[in-house]
Predict the structure of maleylacetoacetate isomerase.
Amino acid sequence: MRLYSYWRSTTSYRVRIALHLKGLAYEPVPINLVEGAQKAPEYAALNPGQGVPTLVLDDGTILTQSMAILEWLEESYPDPALLPTDAAQRAKVRAAALTIAEDVHPVNNLRVIARLKSMGHSQEEAVSWMNDWMLRGFTAFEQLIAPGTAYCFGDTPSLADLCLVPQLYNAHRWGCDLSALARLTEIEALCLRHPAFAAARPENQPEAK
């Protein structure tokens, strides 16, 4: 498998964690979003949305969108499981994960911030925008996860943890005040001690700058 990704991309980070958790080997292919590599015709042919990640399977099948890739990985390589067996519990894990993936991340990605700046907003205003949406999302997320568990929904990482940790990486990067969200930062610390999460961290990628 080949994973086209950007080292700081939170969506790429999610998929890297899953690949490492499931013990799957892959070839990393860096796509520098800041330099516009995602707009190159050869990459746009793989991913018409010109985003990351893109996972190319050994048979040539092309998968895009991180959440779809994570679902494919879970269905194709179910051990260790990222979702519980009970249907209602699976829905709860997905709801928490999607709070990050759909409510928070889309309004904080590079394209949105670039558009804000093109409309005359300053870097300070853009950072304030990101932090506001992250704080709202994290507050809702904390209320959706299971109480009293080591990870978000139990004693092992779930799809929710895979979405939470990368978004917290962005929160730290942009100085978001997480002081009221101690449970989430405790889960983050536990996750980052896990070898799969550690291997997937942005600063541990070959192209990290």
